[in-house]
Automatic annotation (TrEMBL):
It comes from the Bacteria. This is RNA polymerase sigma factor (Sigma-70 family). Belongs to the sigma-70 factor family. ECF subfamily. Residues 12-78 form the RNA polymerase sigma-70 region domain. The lineage of its organism: Bacteria, Bacillati, Actinomycetota, Actinomycetes, Pseudonocardiales. Residues 159-181, 205-258 are annotated as: Disordered. One of its GO terms (biological process) is DNA-templated transcription initiation. The keyword Transcription applies. Residues 122-168 form the RNA polymerase sigma factor 70 region 4 type domain. It comes from Halosaccharopolyspora lacisalsi.
Amino acid sequence: MDEGDDALAAEFDRHRPNLLRAAYRLTARPADAEDAVQEAWRRLMRLAEAHKARIGDLGAWLTTVVGHICLDHMRSAAVRRESYVGPWLPEPVVGEVDGQARDPLDVVVDHEDLRFAALPVLHELTPEQRLAFVLHDGFDTPFAEIADVLGCTAATARQHASRGRRAMTTAGPPPRIPMPEQQRVPGEFLAAVSARDVAAVARVLHPRAARPRRQRRQGTHRAAPGGRRRQGLPVRRRPGGEVRGRPAQRHAPGTGQR
């Protein structure tokens, strides 16, 4: 890089923490946030020199570009989560990302312990609401620039931010699990695994996952081929007649022989 690019890289590094913070609030994954910021840098470097010279506020320009990149990611991620089974949780950040911009969650969360709990609520917003809320409330991005990212009017962008803010402020914190319950579940899980009790493991992970044995219809239960072997349980051969002219096998608990 020449001296001009070196100066541009130094200025980019000054904005990088705020860009990472914005991207993480939008994508909920540190790796995706890093990718978005790196892509913004690549787009900046691909600009012609004349275009670079016309950028009056590099921080605002980069925030808008990161918003574009994250919006595409959010829309594709929203489609993927439609088929996801179970509660969705964001990935935590190891350590804090330094930056001058205030965290948009400060608007609705006044206790550090609730900050991570608020992230799933943030990511239940539509991509448009999330982007408008995060960029405006957290990074002071004008609604006119947000509208350019979303491809809508400034009034619509303002409405997206308002709806996102309202959803965040009306959502209550998740219920706290009592400490005895937190300690009981891991203990039961480890005991079930140690005993190789598959049904008990299933009950710990999901109380309705394993039906009581008495509810099964006798004579109709059939184990999948190799099922006991996959569970790590010993099997042995029992006389079982013939199937297609060959000795049949019945698998049952035993000494590890078939």
